């Protein structure tokens, strides 16, 4: 359990205070080249004043001349991420309060420049004091016991009671140094979220990136649902039908097994493509099937389908064609789950700048073949249609179940649907 000494000395010498002190010393090290360049400028302007002559005046002028140079460095893009990383690691500043990546606007860059100037400027002063004050404080404390040190400091004739106070004076100097370092380090830690925090442009960029990531996850979820869900529905139906006629119709059983084999092989390929996107191995290569593959989808669907196509479907833009295929796939899966082997009527037509998909199958009062609790297919259809700026509807109409989707042929919202 931490006692009273830690409560007094912890804010000055604790782990957080030491890390912030190290952060200030890092700023002092960064200030060194600017101080040297400032010294050259001051020497040129004053006719040859020597920076290292020991005089405090030229050194302060060099310090004043170097600060604007340090601020200019803060305008460069890498300064923001580097400063934020140092603040997180050494100043105990929460990561969520700092901007991610370089500043995206000039106001943000100016804030980073102010921070860089403050960090290097304050760090130079604290670093200088850290180098100079401890030896001096130790000399003051030693003067009480070492005559030669008293002579060097010019206090050899001081009364004994004054010499007895010299160790306390040395300790007070060290405590004052630690207090200044802790105060300056704390001030920089409080300023870091203000100067290195995200600007409105940064927050908007982060929100857009997160929205894009969410949209991509939703798209991949729809791909997996439509591909794997349809395959499972078809395989379940074919396997159930084959089981019922296993002994009476071997030819049908062979046909069902062939359809199951083709369906699973195709689905494994689609699943591998989607998983490749999840691993970010080959983005852009897993576009997925389109309307030209609808005939093959129907032949393996396990349900009799009457297809009516109207218009030049090959001219449908690729993003619309891919989403249309998935909508047809989900419609067939829905028919399989709820109507079994009932015939399905499918119409795909181009009408006035819109691709219209209409699927109808008889209503069935029986239990669904697969997933009696329902699924997310119809919601996925609605999401796909909305992504392209279209609309969809599904429900009973005149004794049949009717699924309709209208997809505009113009540029979809979100580019290629990714």
TrEMBL record:
Its EC number is 2.7.13.3. It catalyses: ATP + protein L-histidine = ADP + protein N-phospho-L-histidine. The chain crosses the membrane at residues 21-41, 61-79, 112-145, 165-189. It comes from the Bacteria. Signal peptide: none annotated. Pfam families: HisKA_3. GO terms for cellular component: membrane. Keywords: ATP-binding, Kinase, Membrane, Nucleotide-binding, Phosphoprotein, Transferase, Transmembrane, Transmembrane helix, Two-component regulatory system. This is histidine kinase. It comes from Streptomyces inusitatus.
